[in-house]
Fold each of these.
Amino acid sequence: MKHITIKDIAKVLGISKSTVSRALSSDSQNVSKETIRKVLDTADKMGYRKNEMAVNLRHRSTKTIGIILPEAETSFYMKFTSMVQHLLQLKGYRLLLAISDEDFINERSNVELFDKYRVDGLLISTCHNKANYDFYESFIKRGIPIVFFDRIIQGLECSSVKSDDYKATFFLMEHLIYDGRKRILYLAGPDHISTTADRMRAYHDTLSKHHISYDPSLVIVTGTNEEDGAAAMTAFLDSCPPQEMCDALFCFTDLQAVGAKKVLEKRGISIPETISIACMSGTRMAALVSPAITTVERPMLKMSEEAVRLLLAKIEDINTPSEKVVLPAEMFIRASTRRK
Amino acid sequence: MKHITIKDIAKVLGISKSTVSRALSSDSQNVSKETIRKVLDTADKMGYRKNEMAVNLRHRSTKTIGIILPEAETSFYMKFTSMVQHLLQLKGYRLLLAISDEDFINERSNVELFDKYRVDGLLISTCHNKANYDFYESFIKRGIPIVFFDRIIQGLECSSVKSDDYKATFFLMEHLIYDGRKRILYLAGPDHISTTADRMRAYHDTLSKHHISYDPSLVIVTGTNEEDGAAAMTAFLDSCPPQEMCDALFCFTDLQAVGAKKVLEKRGISIPETISIACMSGTRMAALVSPAITTVERPMLKMSEEAVRLLLAKIEDINTPSEKVVLPAEMFIRASTRRK
DNA sequence: CAAATTAATGGAAACGTTCCCGCAACCGTT
DNA sequence: AACGGTTGCGGGAACGTTTCCATTAATTTG
């Protein structure tokens, strides 16, 4: 497939490629109207498309942003990406996407790939909290604009956006407690996710604020999927003596909650009468099941706006001071915690 | 941010950049072991990363594929993209992603952007069936490898992969009919989606095969979302005389089905006893609600494999004959059509 | 041991742009 | 009429690679 170049256009019109280049550029300075018309005409006729590779090489900038997602199971990251793409498009940037599948080896190689590709900046939601700290530290030192979103890495000298998980957890926990719940089973997220710690801290803090003693048997660390939630719930119900049964369930993700909910329903435990359910990391899924599940959602739109803003600021000037943006989450009280 | 180039390495080692380039290349022909070691060493020390732009320009190939999705609401496209990325990564390709948001103006400009970016090939699920037929026709003529997936465009001279919607619809409809359902309400998809026609045809054909007369009031053309499903269901229930009530619901997407199901439940209509529900375009959502919804799912994995295979074949040799792959869908009979 | 082959390297062109510089023609001003 | 400024254009270097070709040194071969 032979691509048309400005040289071809120049030859056809009997002018130099400098003039063609000028005529094709958006400001078109120092070219006669007549020439511009002719160039645009024949370019169109010959099916010319500017080779962005050459432009990038010459300009030493790609007008491309890389975004790295930890997974593509939940709708959150995808929608977030979609929003980011729109915002970036307006600013003349393209998006390069990679998915790490919760594997930090992948994440790392994705970052390196994008770097070789000379992306102007990186948007990252990491799968591990600590594992690649050193890696990113040296990366950032090399002067590459990076903004972490949603799942961030503590202590790095860079901008980030996340939702206020501590406050959100606190809110949901108090919501359960004010409803009279005292034995709140917590299906926690895996250690490597950065939000796990914040939420765990909030879980403890709410309990102690309300003078409820902490019972370690009520905390189960598990995966984030439906199956994980179902398995954890089953294990708990099977092993728990009746007098130690929980009266509420607090999940790390809505998928977990849906899985656990199915188990409860199968065993004839009524929701929310016997056990009420609330969860973090809500998506539309939480609203679609019935009873719909009380949840907090990450403020996707605001988050994408902030992420793009912070990244473009760093791209504009790498010495822009870093900002750690923490956004309030959106709360949705639904039937799973509403006694009839 | 000053990037290290092979020239810098050459200068440090006092050798020519040709030699550095050779040492850095994967086959490393005609370079002494000693030189290779030295080059690799200092490259690492200096933090060298190959500039892919320059490589692309020189090689006239970007090792990049563009994928264009119609939307990012449902998990299907995202997971599909994730699978495709994995497959392409193994072959040394990168993925560039764009989302058209069901707007063919966007779709078009996305294609043009990727073209300027000299992607080696394009993976497209289109939002409109007819609107941009001419556009793609001239595009394909220019010799750019394109494979359409899921939502294809009829009549184009190119490869494509889709699931067998006709057969799947037929199967689900017969499943309902064998259960004794005679008045099957069909929430159809919007006209512009390529699969709409196939499914509509299958709807008619199943009815006539089983000598059930077609009642136009049982077909409602609507959007694919939960809200669309709920609105259509409400409208039908409100306007339908009791003697003309339907005994089954057949939806275009699982989101529609979930929306409609909520309306039915709110009105105390029992599922599946009074009205059973089946739907096309199923995702995990259909399994998560209760009662879980009978559905057919597109064979994501197989589809992604085929799409990649077809595209790489075209990239390898643009004259590879086009293939129109039609894959059998996966059937999931669930509680929404299972009388207790 | 001379000739032929092979191995290791350097020089330079090319990929498709942009943009600086220089030149010529034209304009208006003094 | 001489001058400075503007306009329109062409030449050519540069961006960072790869790769062909030429050159030299080292090795094999008859």
Note: Residues 6-50 of chain A form a domain with the 434 Repressor (Amino-terminal Domain) fold (CATH 1.10.260).
Amino acid sequence: MATIRDVAKLANVSVATVSRVLNGSSKVSAQAREAVLKAQRELDFHLNANARTLARKDSEIIGVTVSDLSDPYFGSMVRACENAAHKLGCSLLVCQGLHEEQREIVAIENLLSHHCRGMIVHALTVPDERLSDYMRRVPSMVLINREIPGFEDRCVNIDNEHGEYLAVSQLIAAGHRDIAYVGSRHSILDAKERLAGYQRALKSHNLPLKPSLVVADEPLLDGGVRAAKELISRGVSFTAVAVYNDTMAAGLISVLNEKGISVPDDVSVVGFDDIMLARCLNPPLSTITNPVEEMGEAAVRLSSSLYHKDRQAAALPEFEVRFVSRKSIAPPPAKSWTDQLKERSSGKAGSHESKVSAAFRRAQLEAKQGK
Amino acid sequence: MATIRDVAKLANVSVATVSRVLNGSSKVSAQAREAVLKAQRELDFHLNANARTLARKDSEIIGVTVSDLSDPYFGSMVRACENAAHKLGCSLLVCQGLHEEQREIVAIENLLSHHCRGMIVHALTVPDERLSDYMRRVPSMVLINREIPGFEDRCVNIDNEHGEYLAVSQLIAAGHRDIAYVGSRHSILDAKERLAGYQRALKSHNLPLKPSLVVADEPLLDGGVRAAKELISRGVSFTAVAVYNDTMAAGLISVLNEKGISVPDDVSVVGFDDIMLARCLNPPLSTITNPVEEMGEAAVRLSSSLYHKDRQAAALPEFEVRFVSRKSIAPPPAKSWTDQLKERSSGKAGSHESKVSAAFRRAQLEAKQGK
DNA sequence: CACTGGAATGTAAACGTTTACAATTATAGA
DNA sequence: TCTATAATTGTAAACGTTTACATTCCAGTG
């Protein structure tokens, strides 16, 4: 590999001049600039980012740890991070935690050793104290979806409790009283908050909390599938389900479809996150927007400005969550799906009549929701 | 930040000893090792990866460029790359091309300047010659979904032509004759090959190629939506659609659903890639598997071994594509959806009868497909 | 006791940049 | 022509590691 010295020699100038040309410093004659650029082309020379970082003591790398890059939620987040990094002239170093504590720690330590300009961590399993330790030691580290006491201004979060409250309130407004909740089995901030939002919504409408209607599983497609089966197998009747995230909701809906339980005519479903998938499901899934791209971008900017000790740039914006109405919520059916299933299995005719009335009820609701 | 010198001083040894401890070299007494580790903990010291890379002349970073990290196809790919990199003790530097030539070039140059251990490029818009140039200059660069003459052994590809041939053959086997094709508007390898596979399938079954049944758009959800509308607006009748990828297929299906055209009773659909979304659609989408994770892993391994000039490790495996049967393909309807739409709009009754016969036809096909 | 060999440790020169600071050259004014 | 000043260029010391080579230390041997 050619070095800056080779270029200097070929262009007949000093290394300083080459460096100046390559960094766009003004203090260089047009003649020298030409010679340098020519030599650079000839040698196919590229500045060595490592050496540059070392000499400058200012990295152009922003490190990110997420659970799983193939999860569309993180996909959107990392996309936004890369974009924001690009705007700052930086590149993204990405690690995966894969839901394992050991792997998450390796990922964080790895970023640490790269002495990144910024550091954005989404850790599911690392305990608070350890994370707190890291936060203390590296001032530019920013957390996503966690809230560590004492570091609130470096934790990027949405109001999950409020979001889930919104979601469940919509189900209640549609007339549901037996509302199940499918949660995440990881006990981090958003999981706890969303469950709390579900509970508050029920309480504030004087509905009973039935533990038999709450299940938790891995926040992935298969987790949704398992949770749905578990819920159905419990034999407790429900007419609506609020789900931790859209991916689990997709799994749940696929089980309902398989069993011939119609969404939304028999069971209404509401998700969380509003990933692309939500628009593709049939029926399209009503859900809560999660401004994950804004969060990613804000995290990158915050982290980078902390690194440069910009005090004023460090404030985080408020992130808005809101309910998106699609087609997966309808008023509860006159006859619950448990009864219908019994009826069907006892050989009665298909319920064409009930489909029509379901459509009618749906139209009513939509009118009420104002579009 | 503490440096290796600080650690050496505190531990009362030389920097060489510290380095040896940190790199697991055997030539160091237990006593010294202890002292070093203690000092390291005390100072919260982390080796500087940049300095290490510089001194060792062997990077531990693998660079990857993809179009869009939020695209689930690339999500899976990058996930696999990160995993493979992790196994090699490396980290991933990720850039996005975002379907713009300028941005793709910036991304590549960026990776170049990091002097990565490996370099994996998925470029949509950079022309062959330029890519060829890069390939010549950096021996460890590996291409995904491109095939540049002279560098075949560094291009990671599946047999797209064969895959699409398989997909369309399934439609033909189900009895379809009027088969539309929704392609990608980017003219790179996989787009061309998949179109060719579609054409070969028709030809080899003596079906006519109708240009009016072929559209192309952006390979994203919205592209699928637009393509579907375009196709329908042309007023040419078709009973099946083969789509460039699952994401576009999802967009297409959502339009069909909206218009009341049933999948698969009125129109059969087959996708490509088998992303998670395919399993979540209703009906679940029949598609072609794309072993994108294996490809990502293979690309990382190949790239890293090229960097170290391992000649023998450099062979690429064959990647298998196969048809996955789900529920989106049925035999063509007795009455085409264009006629049905007319009928419906002229006020006739809903076609309950036709639904039953559709179910029957579907069952027949499934029996034929052997599951 | 001198000598040998091996283990443990230390010294210092890379690695490829940036950037103060010094040195040189050019420009203009006297 | 000679300064004074500004513009350009060069020199060399960092930056934080690794590692070849040199040195030191000790146990074991004759």
Note: DSSP finds 15 helices and eleven strands in chain A.
